Structures are given as C-alpha cells and as structure tokens.
Amino acid sequence: MTLDPHAGQPVLTRGVPLGEGRAVMIMLHGRGAGPANIIDLAGPLEHREFTYLAPGASGGTWYPFSFMDPIEQNEPGITSGLAAIDRLVQQVIGKGMPTERIMLLGFSQGACLASTYAVRHPARFGGVIVYSGGLIGPPGTRWDSTGSFEQTPVFLGCSDVDAHVPAARVHESAEVFRRMGADVTERIYPGMGHLVNQEELEFARGLMAGVAAS
Questions:
Q1: Per-residue 3-state assignment (H helix, E strand, C coil) for 20-89
Q2: What is the value of pTM for the model shown?
Q3: What b/e readout covers 23-46, taking b as 16+ CB neighbours within 10 angstroms?
Q4: Tens digit of pLDDT for each residue in 184-206?
C-alpha cells in the first residue's frame, strides 16, 4: 500500500487562471465522488475573480471508514488527504496569493478534511466552509492545536439527522474554531439529511464577495 495514495491524482480547475484572480477556493469532494462533483458548486458559487481548485481522492474515497473511527484505521488516507490540501495551499501561496485570499470548502469527507487541515494549520484564511462534516477523530478526541485563525470566517452547516455526521461533533468542531479565534457561524437544519442547501450556498457567496473585495 502506498503511503500517499492521493498524490498524483488530478486537480480540476475552473474560473480565472491561478495567479490572475483575486482569490482561490480549494474544494474537497465527498466519499464515492470526485473533483467534478464538488467543482460543480463553482456554478452556484460563481465569482468572476475566483480560481477554483478541486483535488481528487484515489478511488473516489479519501479514507475508508467513518471520520469518527480511530484515526489509525483510516490511514494513510487521512494523512495523504491533508497532504493533498497542503500541496495546493503551498502552490497558491507560491503564486503570490496570501492565505487571507484562500478559502477552503468541503462536503462530507471533504468537509472533515478541510476543517481538520485548517485546525492543524491555523492562519487568517479567507474562509472555511464545512458542509455536513466536522473535525476528524474518535469520541473523546482533544484538538489542542495552538495558533489563531485571527477572525477567519468559518461556516459549519449540517442536518440534525445526518446519518454520517452527529450534530454533537459539529458543535464540538465549532467550539474548537471559536477557541482558536475564528468567527464561527454554525447552522443545524432540522430534517435536511446529507446535502447542501440554498442558504448554505448563499452564506458562502457572501463570504466570497467579502474576500474578493478586501
């Protein structure tokens, strides 16, 4: 088994070429999907000054089991997925884009990776959008990362009856971001299920407009 299964997977791009726009959104897909699925959100989230980057997971799955199972059971997928995000972040920074103009967005498994990456690499990002996900780790996990998000806007949206993501983990994740200095918006939607709704998209569009205008 390779130690970095997601290395070398395709990265889909949309929007303005990297380095020519005002901001970048890195988009992480869910289990059993691919870059094309998540980058489709670039349509309803379209902003003419954004570059959209969507990396792919090997076999369409970032890690094999629940994000709340023991981490070692989901390795090397978790570590490899986090590395895939970091490669893109470093590539974007290398093009002269500060973290303040980088947004992270994920759905489901992708949301779990995006939020976990952010907590392990706290900085003033443009925003972190967590759709139906939360921080990775079994019950009782302590996320003791140091550093500050310096009021980075963080959005966590999820159903109260999501079969994959307990609302309690969303609450826990929101508290970690708050403790680390993020400006957190948490919304739990009754009966929504495992999906993204229009209000969540509208919130992300508002954050994007602020990043591009800053």
A1: CCCEEEEEECCCCCCHHHHHHHHCCCCCCCEEEEEECCHHHCCCCCCCCCCHHHHCCHHHHHHHHHHHHH
A2: 0.97
A3: bbbbbbbbbebbbebbbbbbeebe
A4: 999 999 999 999 999 999 999 99
The enclosing H or E element of 183 equals strand 183-189
Q: What is the mean pLDDT of the chain?
A: 96
Q: What is the pLDDT of residue 12?
A: 97
Among candidates 51, 48, 109, which has minimal Cα distance to 84? 109
CB atoms within 10 A of CB 144: 8
Question: Could you tell me if 84 and 42 are in contact, meaning their C-beta atoms sit under 8 angstroms apart?
Answer: no
Please state whether beta strands 50-55 and 11-15 pair in parallel, antiparallel, or not at all (unpaired): antiparallel
